[in-house]
Design brief:
The structure is a homodimer.
Chain A: H1 8-27, H2 31-39, H3 43-52, H4 55-63, H5 67-76, H6 79-88, H7 91-100, H8 103-112, H9 115-123, H10 127-137, H11 144-147, E1 154-155, H12 161-171, E2 180-184, E3 190-195, H13 196-201, H14 208-211, E4 219-220, H15 225-235, E5 239-243, E6 249-254, H16 255-273, H17 288-305, H18 307-319, H19 322-325, H20 328-351, H21 360-393, H22 401-431, H23 436-439, H24 442-464
Parallel strand pairs in A: 1-2, 4-5
Antiparallel strand pairs in A: 2-3, 5-6
Helix pairs in contact in A: 1-2, 1-3, 3-5, 5-7, 8-10, 15-16, 18-24, 20-22, 20-24, 21-22, 22-24
Chain lengths: ~475, ~475
């Protein structure tokens, strides 16, 4: 029993120290002490230690772990560590580890492994598990079926509470959760849900069917996993039942997997909005070349698409006073920022299912008004700033009232256009099946850049009469 | 038992229809049917219906709900709906609702209410609850103490499993979770954890102390709530115990609250990265003026800070051939995008506690190499693009080999600088106690804009000899 506070940073440092100690102990062949240290730690911590010790001793370290803890630790490891370890296993060892694991964890690992390793894994699972794994692997990408687990507790409606509790006692060890149990008929049609709490507070003689909740909320194997995770969160469930298209229970999605989905999907949106191809590998563990591959195509696309702005600017420059060119970066930048604000807001609202295409008129009207308010505020300030700071303070004699007016009006119109475009594009993208998050990325900036230049050009022509 | 698939969009439409039906039924005074509809729905759905029905009948609708469901629904409502409802309550009604609620939910509501309402709420809670609420309200902002609940199940180590299960049966109704229980001494010092699963599979005569897990992971009331949520997620806990600085158990944080924290914190980062002041109100429910208030200060700051770029450009323009000005938006844009990629990546890694200040040298070295790789790729492409597209295709006769070279080299150096700055600034911000997410926002773009112009200026001077 320690009394120190837990933080992830502190934990990481502590585990590094433990890793060093483990290395020393293994060198001294003091395996008893290593075992003792390991069995006192939770699996994610052992996996972190495993990642830090030298490759030469990692297999030895792994074999010191008790069977169940070894399987739990294996699930928590990096893909690369898992692959190396599988290579070091005999078929019997692999079979033992795999039979200790939950099927959804096995599937997660299979999805990251090269074909030869997948073949070995499938060869070393029981026939029944192999069939289940193959079914799960065949569900569409990002569907509920791919994240569910097939190990849940199932009762018949006629069972008594007492019998149900005895059943839980017997099967608990192999089930991912025993706290939400499912009542089905003999064909696995989902009839109701009963929680361990319901069972505990009911009379042992009661029939399960009479205490179950039959207003079941379930999802289908083909539903989007993010929708499912948000639904589980909405109702505060510990698990969500997954049924096939004949309402037969085929699996459950537990709250820990739902958290993973929610985290993954928001990290994906962060990446896309920053014009990066999403990856599930943590930053520090991704090699330079992979980071480069995820970033450079987007930089290239955006760079080349900026040719449009350059071309507009080229036409513009010949026609207009040089003094106006000075404010191009400011107008383009503010336009980009304004559009970014609305596009990120709307894209996240789409991701969280708070907004959909049918809200387009409301979103348009909202952003138009926000845009006008922002335009007025920034227009007035810009007019003053251009006159006073750029004109008087920085002593640019080419700046007069008309120039300030052209800049302020162009900026205002750009802001309104950017806000509306930024809000509407993600909704349109979603409607036609594109990814709204990509719309919230610098791609919108490129579009807004071009539009802001055209607005600037027309304002200058109109007001300065050129 | 329905067989249709659940999606959040479909659910929303369905609830709108139910709301219309409820309005009709209330007009017909068919309250029995309204009650029947409501009792079959989970609280979050009733809260959504409540938000859609006209204000005149909402109080009436709420009073038709059974007591427990009414309290659950109240917790799920929008702040505005809650406030109106509290105003309509008599003191007795308010007391009844509050006594049905978990204390952490009461605290959440209090935090959003105006002072007069808070006063009424506190007046209508039991003396004991009031003391607890006040303690929780006094914990620092964003600390574990502010999100914990004080209603958990506690055992003495000497209790038998059978007695523990009986105890659970008795108190289950008032506890937020019964699935993770805590073993303490008589002074509430946390000794161990025992799950409902452990209790169910153990012999009723066994002593709780002998089956508890004493390698307890706990957090302190003052720990950051995001760290705590990530820690709970790391270990797959359903609840995390919170202790005071003498290791006395004061509360627990349940998995549903941890999910809220994770979601909230990533939405905050999204907002900050888009240069918006974060808000917890969903987009469609935020009024135009509040959206404006969250966005306009940042647009102003960024607009004014762009004066730096304008000033550099002003000095630049007088000295340099007009043709180079054409590429200013492209160089600044690519610099901004490059910096954005690295800053968003590093900022999220900091938020997820994957990276901290001690990783600065590794991050610097990684981004330097990624930057060089990107710089080479984009440099080569830009050189070709400027020569071929801008020069030949768009027929700009001022573009020659030297101009293309100046543009390509400036772009390459800008990319490297932007990548390194984007990665290092968030780490520095974190170190000196600033918010890294604000660094990932357009503020970095402003800085990179200025630096890219200076690089461009020096390259042009160096290569073109001006």
């Amino acid at each position: 029993m320690t009394e120190k506070e837990f933080t992830l940073e502190g934990l990481s440092e502590e585990l590094s120290e433990t890793a060093e100690r483990v290395v020393d102990l293994i060198k001294e062949k003091n395996y008893t002490e290593v075992k003792k240290i390991a069995t006192e730690l939770p699996a994610p911590d052992i996996a972190e230690i495993y990642a830090e010790i030298p490759i030469e001793i990692e297999t030895l370290f792994f074999r010191l772990l008790p069977k169940e803890l070894a399987a739990e630790t294996f699930v928590e490891m990096d893909t690369e560590d898992q692959r190396r370890l599988i290579d070091s296993f005999t078929d019997t060892q692999l079979y033992d580890i795999l039979s200790e694991m939950y099927i959804d964890d096995t599937v997660d690992i299979i999805e990251e492994m090269p074909a030869t390793v997948v073949k070995r894994i499938l060869k070393n699972t029981s026939k029944e598990d192999r069939a289940t794994i193959n079914t799960i692997l065949n569900y569409p990408k990002d569907s509920a079926g791919t994240v569910m687990t097939t190990e849940y507790v199932r009762f018949k409606a006629e069972m008594t509470v007492g019998a149900a509790l005895s059943h839980i006692r017997k099967v608990a060890i192999d089930k991912e959760t025993i706290y939400t149990c499912y009542v089905t008929d003999e064909n696995r049609h989902l009839l109701g849900i009963v929680t361990a709490k319901d069972l505990l507070i009911s009379d042992p003689e009661t029939v399960v069917g009479s205490i179950m909740d039959d207003a079941v909320i379930s999802v289908s194997t083909h539903d989007d996993k993010e929708e499912v995770a948000l639904l589980l969160d909405r109702y505060g469930f510990l698990a969500m039942p997954v049924v096939d298209n004949e309402n037969r229970l085929v699996g459950i999605i537990t709250v820990d997997d739902a958290i993973e989905v929610i985290k993954e999907e928001s990290e994906e949106d962060f990446a896309k909005m920053a014009a990066i191809t999403p990856s599930e590998t943590p930053y520090l563990k991704t090699n330079v070349f992979d980071i480069w591959k995820a970033r450079v195509p987007w930089l290239l696309i955006l760079m080349i698409s900026s040719t449009i702005s350059s071309a507009i600017l080229a036409g513009f420059e010949a026609a207009l006073p040089a003094v106006l060119v000075l404010f191009v970066p400011m107008i383009m930048g503010t336009g980009g920022n304004s559009g970014g604000q609305s596009s990120v807001t709307v894209t996240r609202s789409i991701s969280l299912s708070e907004v959909d295409f049918s809200d387009l008129p409301r979103v348009f009207w909202k952003e138009l008004r926000v845009g006008i308010l922002c335009a007025v505020a920034l227009g007035v300030v810009t007019f003053g700033k251009v006159m006073l700071i750029d004109g008087l303070l920085l002593g640019n004699s080419a700046i007069d009232l008309t120039v300030s007016l052209v800049v302020a009006i162009s900026l205002s119109l750009t802001i309104i256009a950017a806000k509306v475009i930024g809000a509407v594009l993600p909704l349109l993208a979603k409607k036609i099946g594109l990814d709204p998050a990509v719309m919230a990325s610098p791609l919108i900036t490129t579009l807004v850049d071009a539009i802001s230049l055209i607005i600037y050009l027309f304002c200058a022509r109109g007001i300065l009469n050129i």
